[in-house]
Amino acid sequence: MRRRSERQWPGLRSVYCWSPPTGVVTVSGAQQIGVSFAEHHGVVTESGGRRHRFDIRPGDVFANGWSPVYWSEVTRPDELVEIYPGDELLRAAAGSSRTPEIEPLRGVRDAVVLGTASILKRAHLGLVHVDSIRVSELAHRLAEHVVGHYAGIAPPRRAVTGRLDRVLLDRVADVVEARLSDPLTVDDLAAAATLSPFHFARAFKASTGLAPHEYVTSLRMERAKSLLLTSRLSVPEIAYAVGLSNVSHFRRTFRRHTGFLPSDLRPSENRRIRSSSAAPRLTG
C-alpha cells in the first residue's frame, strides 16, 4: 500500500507519503524541512558528494538547502511529511531580498517543526480540516523558526510575545518523551517550563500550533505505531506502553490520528493491506 498527497497552501507546499519498503532510491527536493513519522535503522543519504548512514526515530526532523538529498536502504514502512516554505515567505522572515538557504539537518528533535508537520499530516489524511488562515499562521511561524535556527542568519527582531523559547520547548519535549508511558498532566509540563498551567498551555500552542494534550497524544500515537510495526506486543500491551489504560479509547484515538485501526498495522496484516484492492489511497 502506498499513499501520497501533495498540497499547495498559503506560503508553503507540503508532501505526505506512506509507503512500504521498495528498494527504490527516493529524493527530497531543495529547500525542505520535514519529519519522519517512522522508525528506521541503517538508512543511507547522499547529498553534495557526502554519504551518511544513521538510524531514525519517529518525530526526527530532517532538512536540506539547495542540494537535494537521495535516500536509500529504507527497509521498513516509511511515513513522512516534507514541507517546502515559499521563497517569498523565507525572505520576509529573514528581512532580506535574498532567499536564505536552509541548513542541512539530520535527526534533530524540534517541537515547532514536529507540531506543524503533525497538523499537516492529519490534513493530508483528511482527519482534520485546516483552513487557509490557520495554515498561513503555521507557515509564518515555521518560516520565522527555520530562519532563526536553521538558516545561519539572525532574523529581524520582532516583538514576539506569548511563545516559549527553544530552550523551554526542548525541555518540555524531553519530559514528554521520557514519560510517554506515564500519566501526564499540564501541570507536569508547565513545571518543566516554570510557568503556570494556564500561561504554559497558551504559550505552548502559540509556539507549536498544538495544545499540550494534542502534542502528547500525537507522540503517543507515533510511539504506538512504531511498536505495532516492529514489536510482538499485543494491542493492549502497546496501549499501556503509551500511557493509555483503556484499550477501546486507545483504538479510537489511534484511528483518529493515523487513519488506521491498530490491527491494520500488525506485521501479519501488512500483506493483506498491501494486496487489498480496497486499500485507501490519497490523491494530490
TrEMBL record:
GO terms for molecular function: DNA-binding transcription factor activity; sequence-specific DNA binding. Residues 265-284 are annotated as: Disordered. InterPro entries: AraC_XylS_family_regulators (IPR050204), Homeodomain-like_sf (IPR009057), HTH_AraC (IPR018060), HTH_AraC-typ_CS (IPR018062). The keyword Transcription regulation applies. Keywords: DNA-binding, Transcription, Transcription regulation. Residues 170-268 form the HTH araC/xylS-type domain. This is AraC family transcriptional regulator. The lineage of its organism: Bacteria, Bacillati, Actinomycetota, Actinomycetes, Jiangellales.
